[in-house]
Amino acid sequence: MAIQQIISPEVTEPAAGTWSNCLRVGDTLYIAGLTARDRALAPTGGGEYEQAKLIFERIRHLVTAAGGSMHDVVKINMYLTRIEHREAVWRARREFFEGAFPVATLVEVSALAQPEILLEVEAIAVLNQGGRPVRAVMDGHRASEFVVAEPVVTAVPVEGGRGAFPVRRVYCVGRNYASHAVEMGVDPGTEPPFFFCKPTDSVVSNVLDAVAVPYPPGTRDLHHEVELVVAIGKGGVNIAADDAVRHIWGYAVGIDMTRRDLQQAMRQAGKPWEIGKTFERCTPVGPIVPIGDTGELASGHIALMVNGELRQVSDLSKQIWSTREIIATLSRLFTLMPGDLIFTGTPEGVGAVVDGDLLEAKIEGLPALQVRIGPVSQGVAA
Ligand code: MN
After folding, report:
1. Ligand 1 centroid, distance to 343 Cα (angstroms)
2. Would 381 be classed as within a structural domain?
3. Domain of 17?
4. What's the pLDDT band for 167 if we cut at 50, 70, 90?
């Protein structure tokens, strides 16, 4: 899927074609061009009332899958071709979503030129009350090709409203600062850095406000790890360290949120770390800045504060493996592709956070990243 353009801030005319994709840029979710022509939405060729209900159901599914509710939907644009069906469509909305969102959320925009389409709907949801509504025009697969609803595409805003960076994979480097390895009880001289991954859809960001991260279930020791994040713009295998900078699209500040007690327990049991490193919204990332603006970041101040108190402070030059070496090594193990993010490890000073804490992560030359820890999320409280 390619993002063609991002138009900000006003919604304009509908995208050409009948695209059926969903994009999350930061905490704003765009659902573009669900049409009643898609087989998946109108499997029986049912009437306009049934078709409208299926489209509204699908919007709810996509918003829920992205971690929101229908109350987060700020606007639904509805394009009717056959105006005589307006009443049936509005009846579907009233019956299906009565009280779920204000009537003003649903906007009847215009008639489309294609007479075979009864209606086309696009929605904008601002999740967690953050982010800035902008319009994403996308191309991609028709929904009718998929047997279940396709996952939401995750993207990170580019600094200055200059588009969005779609995320493919998230690689992380463990113990890449000697002082952090020591605080984890490991001798950095005997064990070199290593890799793990975090799920793509755990990446969350927000342009205007702090990123909301609910305190996850199953832990009593949620930790922050501030890290330099490298965004890959050009893929490759067996990349030479000397050539690695050409593969970097840009940089961001990230926090590798970690259920430390679960991570340590699994580590001691010789089992995979997954439950320690992965949970909902565990990978906040700030806006990405193109490398053309920053130059190569091989040194610079890196720090994290909790409620204004300095917890982590170091310099990027203290990394055991440089970003160049990390890219070279990763590309011998995996095929790097545009859209990959690499968390390059955290310095010493990691520690626990609780509900209500405000985290501020900073790296010299990049926009700061703020995270607000929320109440314990649904699930078993520790
Ligand atoms: Mn980390």
Report:
1. 7
2. no
3. 2-151
4. very high
Let me know whether 175 and 32 are in one domain. no
Tell me, what DSSP letter sits at residue 280?
T
Position 155 confidence tier, pLDDT thresholds 50, 70, 90:
confident
Q: How many domains does the chain have?
A: 2
> Do 347 and 203 have their domain in common?
yes
Query: 327 CA distance to ligand 1 centroid (A)?
Result: 16
CA of 14 to the centre of ligand 1 (A): 41
Q: Are 371 and 309 in contact (CB under 8 A)?
A: no
Share of the chain above pLDDT 90, in %: 47
pLDDT at 332 over 90: yes
Q: Tell me, yes or no, whether 158 lies in a domain.
A: no
Q: In 3-state terms, what secondary structure has residue 148?
A: coil
DSSP state of 317: G
CATH no. for residue 25?
3.30.1330.40
In the block, residue with structure tokens 């109440």: 375
Give the global pTM: 0.78
- Using the mean position of ligand 1's atoms as its centre, give its distance from the Cα of residue 243 in Å: 25
Task: Tell me the CA–centroid distance for residue 349 and ligand 1, in Å.
Answer: 12
Ligand 1 centroid–CA 345 distance in Å is 5
Ligand 1 center to 217 CA (angstroms) = 20
How far is ligand 1, taken at its centre, from the CA of residue 225, in Å? 6
Identify the pLDDT of residue 103.
59
**Percentage of residues in the chain with pLDDT exceeding 70?**
73
Q: Which of 239, 199, 244, 248 is nearest to 335 (CA)?
A: 239
Given pLDDT bands bounded at 50, 70 and 90, which one contains residue 282? very high
Measured CA distances, 205 to 60, 130, 201, 202, 336 (Å): 22, 9, 11, 10, 23
Q: What pLDDT is attached to residue 17?
A: 35
Confidence band for 94, pLDDT divided at 50, 70 and 90 = confident
Q: Does the pLDDT at position 114 exceed 60?
A: no
CA of 268 from ligand 1 middle (Å) equals 18
Residue 273: count other Cβ atoms within 10 Å of its Cβ: 17
Q: Measure Cα distances from 311 to 118, 151, 173 in Å.
A: 57, 36, 20
Per residue in 48-63, pLDDT (tens digit) is 677 777 777 777 777 7
Q: How far is the CA of 241 from the centre of ligand 1 (A)?
A: 22
Q: 323 CA to middle of ligand 1, Å?
A: 14
Q: Ligand 1 centroid vs 64 CA: distance in angstroms? A: 28
Instruction: Write the single-letter amino acid at 96.
Output: F
